[in-house]
Amino acid sequence: MMGRKESLRLTPSQTVGPYLSLGLLREDWSKLVPPGHPQAIRIEGTLYDGAGEPVTDGLVEIWQAAPSGRYDHPADGREELPLEEGFHGFGRSGTEEEGRFSFVTLKPGPVPGPGGTTQAPHVMVAVFARGLLKHLITRIYFEDEEEANGQDPVLRSIGDERVRSTLIARKEAGSLYRFDIRLQGEGQTAFFKLSA
Amino acid sequence: MQQHGPAQEQQREILVPQEDDLEQPPYLYPGYVGTRLRAPKEPLIILPKTLSDITGPVYGHRKPGELDNDLTRQHGGEPQGQKIIVHGRVLDGDGRPVRNTLVEIWQANAAGRYRHKVDQHPAPIDPNFSGAGRTLTDDDGYYRFITIKPGAYPWQNHYNAWRPAHIHFSLFGRAFRSRLVTQMYFPGDPLFFQDPIFNSVRDEKARGRMISSFDLEATIPEEALGFRFDIVLEGRDATPFERPHA
Ligand SMILES: [Fe+2]
């Protein structure tokens, strides 16, 4: 359009490489709440490559809403929904120990989806590793949110049950959920492309 | 190879992982051997834009700990090598500054060695150089690091493979969707032609956006060479999300 400032082109992505822990794991950011928090849940998993081997030089980051469903971010203006003191929704875990990552967090609430729909409680996930020239995006949904998952617009858009099931964290003992990430091959995790 | 219900199949928008965006690297780039077992092979699923990705961690969500933009002063003595200033602005696609965003960097030392237990390159560790820094952009989106020029280093990707000198950069921007990890290169590096990581960005102009430029104005006489590296992230100013009509 006339007079409109030409938009800048994005800086390309490059792999984190094998030494990401130097820059990105200087502190433990995997506990979003203290482990003793009464509502704390733990999400554990292993990152696997296409040969089924654990990826020991990866990084998993999460971003999620508070239990009320509100994001601690200025773009979420729903001030009537409470935020949790000291809880912001971002976490980061390395996979140096046999490919395992883990988070201590709170279960997010449902959040608005497109066209007046409601998205089931979910956690946004970004996966980084040597060999990934750009990060991968997936989501963690929760097995014990069956009804909400059934209404979720993203899960409903995935016709293949086997693909859909890769997005569901399995409930294990108590407040522990298991969510493995398979980059390639049998049982590959569903990965997303963000629409513009 | 997979079972889909016919009605559901129509709903599922797909995009093959071997994308045709030449300004970003693909997941599978066989010349970079590390991609072969890590690139997903199933189609990516298009995720509609929602609050979940137009929000994201902003400064304050995690205490960055001690911010440290001077990598030459982290130990008792000065590190070996050419001291450099690396600076620039972080902008969004409309050219507006991305303020108060965390910039994390890590790099090899002047000899091309990372201070990391996995790095077996027989070049010396520098006891005065850790190779990691972080800072926040200011109100103009501006950041600045003082460091040393990293050395090139060999790797096992192919015979006689060397990584061009580079600094790893990690940025958040304003939202989950603006997250970027990249590498900054130095102008005129003779190793570009043989590096599959650099060349995985198939568009030449886009590759140029990863190369810093020598900056005489930022150069400190008798002390340090200046390099300019501006970074453009996806995203716009955060505007309150419209409530869906019930
Ligand atoms: Fe590197």
Helical content of chain A (DSSP H or I, runs of 4+):
10-25%
Write out the CATH superfamily name of the largest domain in chain B. Answer: Aromatic compound dioxygenase
Q: How many strands of chain A?
A: 12
Q: Spell the H/E element sequence of chain B.
A: HEEHEEEEEEEEHHEEE
Oligomer: heterodimer
User: Largest chain-chain contact?
Assistant: A-B, 85 and 97 residues
Shape of chain B: globular
Number of continuous helical runs of chain B: 4
CATH architecture descriptor of the largest domain in chain B: Sandwich
Low-confidence stretches of chain B: 1-16, 237-246
What's the gyration radius of chain A in Å?
A: 18 Å
Main sheet overview of chain A: 9 strands, mixed
Percent of residues in helices of chain B comes to under 10%
What is the CATH C level class of the largest domain in chain B, in words? Mainly Beta
Number of domains of chain B: 2
| Overall pLDDT confidence of chain B | 88
Kindly, what is the distance between the CA atoms of the first and last residues of chain A, rounded to a whole number of angstroms?
19 Å
**Considering the protein shown, what is the CATH homologous superfamily of chain A?**
Aromatic compound dioxygenase
Structural class of chain A: mainly beta
Uncertain ranges of chain A? none
